[in-house]
Amino acid sequence: MSEIRALTYSDLPRVVAIERRTFPTPWSLSMFVLELSKPDCVCLGSVRPGPPAQRDEIDGYLICARYDEAYHLMNIAVDPDQRRHGIGRALIDAMLAQTGQDANITLEVRVSNAPAIALYEAYGFRSVGMRPRYYADTGEDALIMWRAIGTPWEAA
Question: Could you tell me which of 54, 31, 109, 102 has the C-alpha nearest to residue 76?
Answer without folding.
Answer: 109
